[in-house]
Design brief:
Shape: globular
Structural class: mainly alpha
Distance between the termini: 60 Å
Number of strands: 2
Strand order of the largest sheet: 1-2
Number of helices: 14
Order of helices and strands: HHEEHHHHHHHHHHHH
Strand content: under 5%
Length: about 300
């Protein structure tokens, strides 16, 4: 016996579809109250301090009282003699550290995704400095970079090279701290690049190898373009960290010698130490606006390039 299947009439299908609940496009599958804990934390730790900083930047305040003075704090901040030097050093420091982290992070990631011995161990070694305290790293490298007794200059002297006065010479102080910053932070850039490289389908590399492409051509034509999202992430994170850097600079040079390694953050801290709380708050607002004015357009540009790619 043969059983025949009769398809429902179109009118019947239409009636069934009308009675089925429709899910709105873009509607979250979770209830809105699921977002409440994150919203509370975000409001308490970011929104409230941000708006409070903007308000108190227009005041002369202490722990118990405040007086509204308008734009006087900003006028006085921009008249600070060390501001121009600190602003210049901030941009130099951010550019040097972010550039080196991008370049070294990519090269190390390519090495650590290749077939080498002890690859997992080397990845751990590269990432380990990221876990260290910036203050501890600064103190250790201050000892290592001592011009006369430091191990770095002693090692250079053993091979006939006279090492510079790393943290004492005004020409070397800022660059020395930047190099330590790169040593400490390049591990994070490497991990991000490793994640970007391993997500590239291996079929591309196999096809390039069958076509006779060299390793250099595979890197420039496959790895570099397809790792663009990782590059954008590393650039943004490194530049934000460089522009806001304070702890490592303060631990190693305290902005010295003189004002030669001062950045905006250290200038702000010195004002706070002197008891000018409203002035230092205005400086923090200026730093926030500078970082936002640089990072926001850069992020939009990098993301647009990524979409076009």
């Amino acid at each position: 016996m043969t059983i025949k299947t009769v398809a429902p009439a179109p009118a019947t299908v239409a009636r069934r579809a009308e009675h089925q609940p429709r899910r709105r496009k873009g509607k979250s599958p979770y209830p809105y109250w699921f977002y409440l804990p994150a919203a509370v934390v975000y409001t308490a730790l970011f929104l409230v301090p941000t708006f409070a900083s903007f308000f108190f930047s227009f005041t002369r305040w202490t722990l118990t009282d405040f007086t509204f003075i308008g734009l006087d704090n900003f006028v006085q901040f921009f008249q600070e003699p060390a501001l121009l030097k600190g602003l210049t050093n901030t941009f130099i420091y951010g550019a040097v550290t972010s550039t080196l982290k991008v370049v070294l992070g990519m090269l190390l990631a390519v090495l650590l995704t290749s077939q080498i011995i002890a690859r997992g161990y080397l990845r751990s070694v590269i990432f380990f400095p990221v876990l260290l305290s910036s203050i501890g790293v600064g103190i250790v490298f201050t000892v290592l970079m001592d011009p006369s007794k430091g191990m770095i200059n002693q090692a250079l002297a053993a091979v006939g090279i006279e090492g510079p006065a790393w943290l004492v010479d005004p020409a070397w102080a800022l660059l020395s701290v930047a190099l330590v910053d790169v040593w400490k932070g390049v591990g994070l850039a490497t991990v991000i690049y490793i994640a970007g490289i391993v997500s590239i389908p291996q079929e591309y590399f196999e096809a390039a190898k069958m076509d006779g492409a060299s390793s250099a051509k595979s890197f420039f034509n496959i790895t570099l373009p397809l790792a663009r999202p990782a590059t954008a992430t590393v650039i943004i994170l490194s530049l934000i960290g460089g522009l806001r850097s304070f702890d490592l600079i303060w631990a190693m040079t305290k902005g010295g010698p003189g004002f030669t390694s001062d950045v905006i953050a250290s200038v702000i801290f010195k004002q706070y130490q002197a008891g000018f709380y409203g002035l230092s708050t205005a400086g923090n607002v200026v730093l926030f606006l500078i970082v936002t004015a640089i990072i926001l357009p850069l992020s939009m540009f990098l993301n647009r390039k990524e979409v076009e790619q």
